Amino acid sequence: MKIKRFSGANTREVLQQIRGTLGPEAVILSNRESDGAVEIVAAIDFDEKQWNETQSIPAWPEPLRTHPEKTEAFQPAQLPAQGATIAPSQSSTNPSPRDMSQPLASAPLRDELQALKQLVERRWGPQPVQQSAQEALREMGFSEEWISEFLEQGECREWELKLLNTLQEKVGISQTSLEKPGLFVLLGPTGSGKTTSIAKLAAAQVLRHGPHSVALLTTDTYRIAGVEQLEIYARILGVPLDVIKGPEDLLKSLEKHRDRSWIFIDTIGMGPRDPRLNEQLQWFAALGADAQRFLLIPASLSGRNLATVLQPYTDIPLSGAIISKIDETPAFAAVLEWLAAQHLPVAWYSDGQKVPEDMHEAPWEQIMNLLKMNSALHKERLADDPGSRYHGTQL
């Protein structure tokens, strides 16, 4: 009996080495993976009794292909000739070139490999590819329900591309562009960054078309220094700023600045139960199709807080969403989940305080990169406090 050890990058490569060296009647005695390589011990003129005596182990059980359910122990398998069945060839000559072009895995061999795969999954859980996808999606901030539904849709080996396509389909990108003149209203909860975002959008248009093309309006008379903050930006940009205290003021200002191509309206941020919020939303809903209404969502919002805080804004027509403060949170997939449920497309995202540099249009490839980049920080946070997860706390 001649025994030899073979190694290579994958099983197919090693089997070809064995077939070329020992011929099609070689018997596989053992296999294992080591440092990313596959190692197989094979023999020719195999004497099972002699091998058992040498290894001091019980005799080999019947082959897996005969009884697929008996997968608790590995047994030597006759190496198949190219294009042949699993039964050993009666010829000791090497396969012809025509034989070598045939598929390596015959139907019985596929059954045997499938049985081996099932054994591995029973002992060590799901395949590593799926585990990696699940963990990565958790680190991005997706909920367990969303992850379960996403991975049930099919093979997840190309899960990143599949995620990109899913988000493009369910959320999408807003078709509204600053290239066309219009009336732009920024809505959103307290602290979402509306005033700074207005300044970024207005500054971009001033740089492109000059200060004569832009006007600023604000209803933010409730927040301390809210008007003063936007007034500073207006003075720097060289554009007018009007303070709006009611619907009459709004109509007068729009008429006053009708010769300006881009009008941006900053709004007051209030709690979802504040009756004044609904009143203000009705002002801007009454503008109809003449206004582009954008919902500003802080990237850090998640779970039930997100749905509760944003619910009042779903009652009026919206052109799209702006995800703000992406640089301040390790995971923002919960916002994307909410947008998918509302079928509300993304228009822009912001990732810093610089005006106007840190306001960006939102191609999905870039959003995917941000999800993956921020997930590293999310993972570190979870390691420090395993009990803290974005979707783990019920309020």
From TrEMBL:
It comes from the Bacteria. The keyword Cell division does not apply. Keywords: Bacterial flagellum biogenesis, Bacterial flagellum protein export, Cell membrane, Cell projection, Cilium, Flagellum, GTP-binding, Membrane, Nucleotide-binding, Protein transport, Transport. SUPFAM superfamilies: P-loop containing nucleoside triphosphate hydrolases. GO terms for cellular component: plasma membrane. One of its GO terms (biological process) is protein transport. It is a peripheral membrane protein. Residues 181-372 form the SRP54-type proteins GTP-binding domain. Pfam families: SRP54. Its main location: membrane. Residues 180-320 form the AAA+ ATPase domain. It is found in: Cell membrane. The keyword Transcription does not apply. Residues 83-104 are annotated as: Disordered. Residues 87-96 have a biased composition (Polar residues). NCBIfam families: FlhF. Necessary for flagellar biosynthesis. May be involved in translocation of the flagellum. This is Flagellar biosynthesis protein FlhF. It comes from Acidithiobacillus thiooxidans ATCC 19377. The lineage of its organism: Bacteria, Pseudomonadati, Pseudomonadota, Acidithiobacillia, Acidithiobacillales.
